[in-house]
Amino acid sequence: MRRGRLSISTRKHLLIGAAFIALTVTASAQTPPKFGQPIAPADIAPWDISIGPDGAGLPPGRGTAVQGEAVYAAKCQACHGEKGAGRPNDALVGGKGSLEAGKAPVKTVGSYWPYATTLFDYIRRAMPFQDSKSLTDDEVYAVSAYILNLNEIIGKDDVLDSQSLPKVRMPNRDGFVPFPRSPK
Fold first, then answer.
1. Nearest in space to 163 (alpha carbons), one of 55, 68, 65
2. Rounded CA gap, 172 and 111, in Å?
3. Local confidence band at 78 (pLDDT 50, 70, 90 cut-offs)
4. Threshold 0.85, pTM exceeds
């Protein structure tokens, strides 16, 4: 065999392979793929838990910072440090006034987050890291209250629930530019 030329046997194999691919593509174009089945709303519900800035979708439940301290110590402190000071993961407390020009920002719940409802949403879906979505709604309200209290945003006996949480005014609420999700 000379260099650069295919043997008759190789050409036959390539021709057979091309014919097979052509037939497969033609057959698959006529029959749509059958991937699974439609999902029932009841199957979606446990994952459809987003809470927006206005608090729509907040579940029933309630909690205070006093209740949240025990939950935090048991389920959050190992990653976020005593009283939210950080280490080994992000600090949750501090940084007040650090978002000014010329300063290195400290992005904590108290200095950076614009809405308390998104704090609830994040804790509910992603914490504790090693066991996400394991906290009860009461525990999430309580831990949210504890973190907000440590940041001096609410009092230690203030009750957070679906009515009061959206009313919490975060220090950096006006520090963001709204992004419209759909053109008007």
1. 55
2. 6
3. very high
4. no
Q: Is the pLDDT of residue 170 over 70?
A: yes
Q: Maximum CA pair distance of the chain? A: 89
Helices 116-126, 137-150: inter-axial angle, 10-degree rounding: 130
In whole angstroms, what is the distance from residue 56 CA to residue 45 CA?
A: 15
Asked whether residue 26 carries a pLDDT value surpassing 80, the answer given is no
Torsion of CA 148, 152, 157, 163, to 10 degrees: -50
What is the model's pLDDT at position 182? Answer: 63
List all residues 6 or more positions away from 161 whose beta carbon is below 8 Å from its beta carbon.
Answer: 58, 60, 61, 62, 63, 141
Quick one: CA torsion of 51, 54, 58, 63, rounded to 10 degrees? Answer: 110
- Residue for token digits 């914490």? 127
**Cα separation, 133 vs 122, whole angstroms:** 10
**Residue 1 reports pLDDT greater than 60:** no
